[in-house]
Amino acid sequence: MAGMVQKDIKRLSLYLLFAPFALWIALLIVLPHLGMFYISLREKVGPRVYEFGFENYTNFFLEPIYWNTLLRTGSMSLLVTALALVLGFPIAYYIAKIAGNRTRGALFLMCLIPLWVSDLIRAFGWILLLRETGVVSSSLQWAGMIDTPIEFLYNDAAVIMGLVYTVILFMIVPLVSTLDGMDKSMIEAGYNLGGNGPTVLRRIIIPYAMPGIVAGCIVVFMLTAGSYLTPILLGGKNSSWFTEQIYDQFITRYNWESGAAFGFLLLAFTSFVVWAGLKLSGQTLNSTVANN
Amino acid sequence: MQSNSENDLECIGVKRHFGSVRAVDDVSLEIPKGSFFSILGPSGCGKTTLMRMIAGFESPDAGDIRIKGKSVIDTPPNRRNVKMVFQHLALFPMMNVYENIAYGLRCNGVSKSEIETKVRDVLERIALPDVANREITQLSGGQKQRIAIARCMVLDPDVLLLDEPLGALDLKLREAMKIELKLLQHQFDTTFVYITHDQSEALVMSDNVAIMNEGKFVQTGTPQELYHDPSAAFVAGFVGDTNRWDGKVKSVAKGVAEIETATGLTMRSSVRGERTPGVGDAVSVFVRPEFITTQKAGGAAPAIGKNKNVLEGRIDSILFNGANSRVLVRDGSEELVEADVVLTGGTADLRAQDAVRLIWSAEQTMCFAS
Amino acid sequence: MTTNTVFLTSYRLYVLAFFIFLAAPLVAAGVFAFNDSLFPALPWRGFTLDWFFSDTEPKLGMFHDRRLLRGLYYSFVIASFVSLLSVFVGTCNAFLFVRCNFPAKNFFYIMMVLPLVIPGVILGISILLLASTVANGVEETLALELDFLRPGIILVVLGQFSFITTITSLVIIARLRKFDESMEEAAFNLGASRPRVLRTITLPFLFPAMAAGGIVAFLVSFENFNTTLFLVGSEAPLTITMYDRMVKVGSTPVLNAVSFFLMIGSALLALISIFVQRDTPET
Fold first, then answer.
1. What does the pLDDT look like over B338-352, one tens digit per residue?
2. Angle CA(B1)–CA(B2)–CA(B6) in degrees, nearest 5?
3. Residues 6 through 25 of chain A touching chain B, CB cutoff 8 Å
4. Would you say residue A150 lies in a domain?
5. Looking at beta carbons, which residues of chain C come within 8 Å of B91?
6. Any CB–CB contact under 8 A between A109 and chain B?
């Protein structure tokens, strides 16, 4: 029967299509993470002698510098996420709803162009602007506003600004695409029914944009917490970002067990924050990130 | 089984279930060569499933489908000489008109020069000789329609299936395309099987129409038969406009029943359908608006024959639509009855709130046992 | 009325300030490539193209700097492989998730999206750990040296591929969702075989998304740093080479020249990808 042959073809094509997906996810995502977890549970008792246990994790909690770094990374990432949302929302709203048709495309494109430029170049640009001999400092001197050069780099403010700069595009893009779908008449109806600016924003625009807000926040938070280059280059050697600790354990101290444990803790910590954020906002991973 | 080779398409006891839903339930049909056949039914009645089985996109659970007398059950869809015009036409946007029409010929390995002549020829026949190099997006709705048909007809199919292709067009174009489709069918002299939920499309174009409901064919016949002699309450209610009452039979004699409706009216009606209802049986009564005569009440009551029904009422509103104007009359039981009227624009015309008398004959009233 | 105009004007000023903020570091990184000075800093000492084309120290231009050119070459090789691989797997994923039905489909879809939210550093070290563990195990038990599992180009390609595939998948899935399946049926109905339908109807329809996905993959791979850092061997791609130079030598205008070159290249590719995606007939 033709029907049977068709069913066989369907099944065969399902297997053939599933194979690359399964190989990719299993070999490059699931297995490495399981392996990392496995290694993080090994304790080195002698050269090439290992035992199982939670020592790598207890070390982390016993050494304040480690968990302080993680907490610092987490709280600064949250701050960066909040700043990116507050600064990015008006821009996204302007692009999606206020700009004329032609400017809209141009503005959106301008938003995207820095996205295609490497982290490294962006950080390099900031260094040239902010360091002691940089553009900002020498311009201020030239204008007579300061007498001696000022170092704007290597402090938390510089790190936060650099991170906001690096990730804000990932906030704006999903926001624009959600706000784009919102009918202008919805806002007009809000005003028409007697709302004023703040109530329309709070009752209509923000609830509507919620999936975009959550999607943007998740991506921004993950990118920030996992970033490495920006804190190092703008914050200097003592910026104490958690990814630096991981790099340090792996490359400098060659302590893979403890590095794996740190990596796993970062993953668990960021996943927990994202999960909590999803729960608080009543969204799912599928309805937010997957849609962009 | 001996097949009649005069039939382009036959379905014999075709069934298709989706889970517990009987999408197509034991459908048989015969379509003679060169005719325009419509399958008319409400959405979800199984007509699309039936068409997809004929095209080969679905396989029937039971039954046989024959094209020119030969079973095609085991033939894959790309080897069946049944072509299909899709609901949204499914023209290929990445190809121009010429490539769209040549697509099927290329699949069949026809030589380049022959493709060239065939495409020119079919474009000539659909009266669009100059559009070969246009992109699909540059065509109007009606032109796309014709290209979709040409793309199939260039392959010289035994049967052309059309799946509600006029649905996406606006009203005016739809009216024009009805006539055009009928003319194209004559010109190509190919069997068209047309699926629609729009009764006016089916009635205007078809030689024969099958009324489908809940997976079954309820009645098959010419448009006139379906309209004037429906065999079931569903057909009477679905084809054409009609007034409908539910009631009980008080007496039956010589094919005429006296019925008391649920709202308390009494009327006489001819008995239709397969089953003759007995006294006390529930029936549905139908009468079409054009068979009801509307008179102003008062004045001398005209002589009314024994087989006439009379109803007094007041005009609730007038639905003016030129020659197809209609009045809504509210009768004593507060129900609305529709009746066609001629409005000349003179002073004698009916107006809202006029008291009127509605008269129609028992022969033109149809009742079916429910 | 006046409060409204004041509000709108300040809103516009804010938007303007924002875009200046966006552009500032990029302009700074680009402009100093043309400053005739040994340091990428003010004052402006006149226009020069030396940092691109000069072949003598101390102003060795980027097109004569062997290590930078080699980095560029490796970046190009890596990005090409990553974009080919990720477009291929992304296309398979699109058909898998749009056309097929299988148990736990939602779960697998989340698995597919997941690599995008895993920090790049973690992706890098987890793949490094697994590869090294396997390579060490094989070396100890079978005395076989599996070079491809040691840090190097192959691991970098795999590491970048592991999250870039999510991006290409999402781009291609979005396009395939818009595809009207009756178009395939129509082609079938007109006598085309299954492979022919795929070749003449479905893939041409998907092509803009595949091209755009490929370009995005190429760019993301080219600029990736976090994942690459852990997997890189002796064949360092451009970002790693630049980082080394920055840390060891300090900033020199040749880095500005490279930045300028990369920004122009990225902008061109991004424009092409937007053009390819826009230039498709609406269905």
1. 999 888 887 778 888
2. 140
3. 6
4. no
5. 186
6. no
For residues A127 and A233, the answer to whether their CB atoms sit within 8 Å is yes
Chains that touch C (3 or more CB pairs under 8 A): A, B
Same domain, B74 and B185: yes
Q: Which residues pair with B286 in a beta bridge?
A: B244, B366
pLDDT digits (tens, 9 = 90+) for B205-257: 899 999 999 889 999 999 999 999 999 999 998 888 899 999 999 988 888 88
Q: What is the ipTM of this complex?
A: 0.83
Q: What is the pTM of this model?
A: 0.82
pLDDT > 60? residue B4: no
Residue C38: predicted pLDDT: 72
Q: Check residue A96 and report its DSSP letter.
A: I
Nearest-neighbour CA in chain C from B100: distance (Å): 10
Q: What is the pLDDT of residues C180-206, one digit of tens each?
A: 888 999 999 998 888 899 999 999 999
Instruction: Compute the distance between CA of residue C81 and CA of residue C100 in angstroms, rounded to an integer.
Output: 28
Contact C251 A134 (CB under 8 A): no
A:270-289 residues touching chain C, CB 8 A cutoff = 270, 274, 285-286, 289
Overall domain count for chain B: 2
Cβ atoms of B297 and B357 within 8 Å: the answer is yes
Query: If you average pLDDT over residues A222-240, what whole number do you get?
Result: 83
Mutate to test the interface with A, among B74, B75, B78, B80 (most CBs of A within 10 A): B74
Domains of chain C listed by start with CATH number: 66-278 (1.10.3720.10)
Q: Return the ∠ at Cα C145 (arms to C143 and C150), rounded to 5°.
A: 140
Question: Is residue C205 less than 8 Å (CB to CB) from chain B?
Answer: yes
